[in-house]
Amino acid sequence: MHRLRAAIPAARIARYDKVCADTDVDGMDLYRWASSVALAVFDDLGHLEVAMRSAMARELAATYGVNWYERVEILDEDTLELISEAWQTGHLSKLDADSIVIHGKLVATLMFGFWVKILGKGGYQGTDEDRSRRIYDTLLWKPALRRAFPEVGDFDRSRVESAARRVRSLRNRIAHHEHIIWGVPIAGEQDSSGTPVRLSLTEAHDTLIELAGYVDKGLAGWLMENSRVHTLIEECPVWEGHLDL
C-alpha cells in the first residue's frame, strides 16, 4: 500500500486521510474503495452510453439517411465541428468500407458530449450573409430522436437533455479521475437561489438509471439488478456522514 501512496500526490490523499483520522481505517483503504465505486459507476455508464448513442444514430439514419452527419441543413456549426474532429480522430477518410461501416465507426468515435449536445436546443450555421439557427427540437428531436427515447413524450426533449447533461458531468468527473464520493457538481446548472447544483453520488447514479429507462426500460431494470454501485456504497469503510453518498 505504501508504494501506491508514494506514487499519488499528497494533496490528493489528504482529504481521505482527514476523513479517516479518528478511525481505524487507513486513508488509502478509503481511496481504493472510492476507486472501486467509480469503476462500478463507469461500468454502468458504458452500457448506457453504447445503448443511447446506438438508438440515437439509428433514428437519425432512419430519418435522414446513413450520412445524416453531413447534413449541414439540420446541424449547427458546433455539432459539425465535433463530427469533423471525430472523423479525423478515427482516420475515417482512410477507411475503405461502405457507408454503413463508416457510419458505425463514426458513431463509436463521437464523444458522449456530442450526443448530449444534439439533445439540446441547437445553434447557428452559415456565413454572416446566410446565417440561420438550427432548431434541434424541430429538426432532430421531433422527426427522429424522440423515438430513441420511447419512454418519454414527444415534447419531453428538455427532460432527456437535463438527465443526459447530469450524466455527462458524472462521466467526465470519473474519466478525469476526480472525486465522486463527496458529490458530483453539475456543470452549468444552478438551483432557484443561484447555487451551483451538486448531486450526491446516489442521486447522480439514479439519474443514470433514469436516462437508461428513457432509452429502454429493460436496460434500466438490468442495471438496477446487476450494478455493484449500491452494494459498494453499503460497504463504505467509514461513517457515511463524512461523505456525500
Automatic annotation (TrEMBL):
Top-level division of the source organism's lineage: Bacteria
Protein's name according to its UniProt entry: Abi-like protein
